[in-house]
């Protein structure tokens, strides 16, 4: 699965440099250039197990959605229905609960409270998938076990538009390590730097994991901690997460923790076996099981997508007439991937036949090309920030 990252020759650096300059000065061109076959025609790898899916039984896996006090299921009706119907179809436990009935009220921030709730539920199962309420399942044929691995107690994923670990979802196994980590993390609330733009749990997970996984890198930890403490806006927050990510390097696996990646450092993207020949290394990292819906205007692929994020009832829009393009749309709109409502009575074990809106189903190539273009745009912007 992993190739060693190596840069073979000096000319390769020159090539990178030229590429960098090209990106800096012709950013939009490179994004639109359909001839960039190294960029847009290369599939994102999908990290899935095809080995033994039954190493962990479905009935011992709980899918948990924690709502803040007073939040109603209707606010996320389609997303939650899809998750419940999916859980029923495969025999997973489905738990929809509120965060005020688990003894987690001592935590002030609802974002931390939900992790506390997860830590209370986890001991009853072998594993828990935590999902934000606005995540829906689109590809009901996928199984959670495909994304799990006996080697890892915690599986996080990168968000698609930033170098950030997303806390909207993770998978944790009921081991001492998994339980301790989530419990400790929920209590990390008290370490949020006061008065800074800290990003609550999404910001905190970076510092927390860095302290856990690199306890001896004191200097780097301190530098990142200062960046977090001094953060006043999104750009600062970005600098802070980048600081942490440089500690993590290009790895995805850290002992019992795995971070499903899609962002690669440029040096790991190209490999240059000949003086002027670079090939794209696409076997490096897998992609997560959930991504933001708006990135592709709601178009998804049966081959690559599993869950979509951002399905809030009051942001639902009608699918427009006319041809649809696989490109980012407003972050506050989405189209329902489904035709008609879920009939919860018919969501039973073995029913994986759902009615999708066929107009929103795209090919893997189209969806990935759209995602890659967006990723490239972000990378170009990042370079501008660093200038
Ligand atoms: C898969 O794992 C289950 C449970 O550990 C076991 O019973 C089954 O024989 C395994 N199947 C294969 C094909 O290895
Ligand atoms: C399976 O469940 C879906 C979602 O509720 C429903 O639309 C469909 O009719 C069901 N299929 C069968 C064969 O019952």
From TrEMBL:
Q: Which UniProt keywords apply?
A: Membrane, Transmembrane, Transmembrane helix
The signal peptide annotation in the UniProt record is none
Superkingdom: Eukaryota
InterPro entries in UniProt: DUF273, Nucleotide-diphossugar_trans
List the transmembrane segments.
6-25
Q: What is this protein called?
A: Nucleotide-diphospho-sugar transferase domain-containing protein
Its source organism is Caenorhabditis remanei
